[in-house]
Amino acid sequence: MSAIRYFRLVPWVFVACALATGAFRVSQATGQEAQSAAASPATPPDPEQGKLLFAQNCSTCHGADAGGGDGPNLHGVAAVLGVPAVQSIIRRGIEGTAMPGSTTLSERETANIAAYIGKLDSATNAGQATGDPHKGEALYNSSGCSACHMIAGQGGSIGPDLSRIGAARGPTNLKARLQDPGANLPQVGDGPFGSRWTQYLMYRAVEKDGRAVEGVRVGEDSFTIVLKDLGGKLHGFRKPDLRSLEKEPGKSFMPRFRETLSAPQLDDLVAYLMILKSAQ
Ligand code: HEC
Ligand code: HEC
């Protein structure tokens, strides 16, 4: 259900158009870079300006305090990866994930944002999970999560694979998603033409013969949509062949855990999810 899988479903004509617009934007950005490099060849990066740029370009996914949201917590990241690597991530994005590369930020703006992230150490970390990951793991095993989710190859596939969920999202977002599945769904920025795309949105499709299918959207373009039903089965439709196609915002196959787990239990579960950071 990742963005990359969605991309495979997009007809080539869309991919070609997206590439064409991407190429156009790159040449624009290069123009800006040339300008700003000429204006200020040796000025050190300015983390204060980086903070403002972060608020405009990154906070929707990484949170206002960079403590994470749809995207991961960034405190301490520069200490691990190094500022140059952060700069390169900002420019190129991370392939196969929801982290987009920027085609509009200049070299200098990128350096300023990386300098701001470089100042966010883990000591003042707003995005750290507060619960106990060991208790969280036990709760994961006793709450039926693995019927729908896979971790390191074990479990079901109705819901998304959670093997790397701690690298992909912040704790606040994960807690909200457990309390109220279907709400707070992540917005991905790499649909055709850079459009925003709500992940895991549910739809109800009714065919002309009255047969109805309810499922999570795993792919869509102008003429087709692919839904995954509660059994994990994929259903592809041509939109003109449908009697109706309705979004079901707020709905999810995942049960709500707001009533069944206490707030401290949810924190423990989130702490466990946050340590899941590698695909192996
Ligand atoms: C559309 C949402 C979105 C936007 C906008 C976004 N990011 Fe990300 N970012 C992500 C996601 C999701 C990941 C995690 C990708 C993964 O590894 O699964 C990520 C990962 C990263 C990482 C790597 C973290 C690590 O621990 O390896 C850095 C650094 C980063 N983003 C910086 C930024 C900066 C700076 C901006 C603004 C210029 C930005 N991001 C804008 C979603 C976003
Ligand atoms: C009946 C199937 C089902 C069960 C049981 C279930 N989930 Fe989910 N889960 C889903 C589906 C479908 C989604 C995607 C839609 C959504 O977020 O509401 C999801 C989403 C998630 C996400 C967000 C994934 C992302 O990429 O952002 C997390 C985290 C999660 N589930 C954890 C859990 C945990 C922990 C449990 C057990 C306490 C659990 N789920 C039980 C089906 C399930």
List the helices and strands and how they pair.
Layout: H1 3-9, H2 12-39, H3 47-57, H4 59-62, H5 77-81, H6 83-92, H7 107-118, H8 133-142, E1 150-151, E2 154-155, H9 165-168, H10 171-179, E3 187-188, E4 197-198, E5 202-207, E6 212-220, E7 224-228, E8 234-238, E9 242-247, H11 263-274
Antiparallel strand pairs: 1-2, 3-4, 5-6, 5-9, 6-7, 7-8
Helix pairs in contact: 3-7, 6-7, 8-11, 10-11
* Number of β-strand runs: 9
Query: Unreliable runs, pLDDT <50, ≥5 residues?
Result: 1-38
Name the CATH superfamily classification of the largest domain.
Cytochrome c-like domain
- Tell me the overall shape: globular
Assign the CATH architecture of the largest domain.
Orthogonal Bundle
How far the N terminus sits from the C terminus, by CA atoms, comes to 18 Å
Q: What fold name goes in the CATH topology slot of the largest domain?
A: Cytochrome Bc1 Complex, Chain D, domain 2
Estimate percent helicity. 40-55%
Small molecules in complex? heme C
How big is the Rg? 21 Å
Question: Keywords for this structure?
Answer:
single chain, 280 residues, alpha+beta, Cytochrome Bc1 Complex, Chain D, domain 2, SH3 type barrels, 3 domains, two-stranded antiparallel ribbon, globular, disordered N terminus, binds heme C
